[in-house]
Amino acid sequence: MKRKKSLLAFLMIASLLQPATTWAAEVDLLDKYPVKTPLFTQGLELDPTGKELILGTGLEGKSQLGKFNLQSGELEDAQNLPNNYFGEGITFTPNALWQLTWKEKKVLKRDPKTFEILDEIDINTEGWGICYDPDEKVIWRSDGTSTLYKHDPETFELLGQVKIMNGKLAASKLNELEWANGHIYANRLYRDEILKIDLASESVVETYDVRPMLDQTLNEEEIASVDTLNGIAHIEGDEFYITGKLYPYIYKVRLK
Q: How many C-beta atoms lie closer than 10 Å to residue 216's C-beta?
């Protein structure tokens, strides 16, 4: 009996010492919108009016930026990137729409209304995800590691960087980013989860497991054909649009 009590006490103490990552954060499905032709989604963002859902795609020779129509399931008014560019994450700032490229290590500065390319700026690493922080008035960018880079929203000058921790481990493979409710929400490459990041502590404070929702809404053929979860657009409060590469749906969810 003493041995059992000692073991129980050990397990209780060990549980208290575990990393503070929360795996039970809820993902509530509110709606889903079919995608007529699955897209290699790399960036998802509502425009400043909150009326247009902007979507950027990847792959060399196929990368586009356009407006996704939730009713028709089609990407409309799409603009092609140069054939040698692999499109990545997108974000709006007060005066521009920014679109990353992958191994080309360039970011495209676009007119926020016409999407015309105004400038191309070199960056020091690959481009993966990007979001605008209206509180600090800076851009945050990921490159597939645990590091987030801070940039000036007008010139894209590099202002600093932080390493994000998930408990005692680095939060690796950070991908698409979205700023909402004072936090960064991040996809991770090849993980069916969304991380909620607190920049003040440079750490993950919630982990949202999206796999149960995918299992409920996708058949076996669809599960076999989709790529990684990739695309987060904040609507309001705790509501978001999320999707992924070659996903047959864009989901409207509540992240509690």
A: 8
CA pair distance 103, 239, nearest whole angstrom: 32
Question: Tens digits of per-residue pLDDT, 78-119?
Answer: 999 999 999 999 999 999 999 999 999 999 999 999 999 999
- Domain map (residue ranges) of the chain: 22-255
DSSP 119: E
Q: What is the largest CA-CA distance in the chain?
A: 74
What is the rounded CA–CA span in Å between residue 169 and residue 171? 6
pTM: predicted TM-score of the whole model, two decimal places: 0.89
- Four-way CATH pick for 22-255: 3.40.50.720, 2.60.40.3390, 2.30.40.10, 2.120.10.30: 2.120.10.30
Element (H, E) at 183: strand 183-188
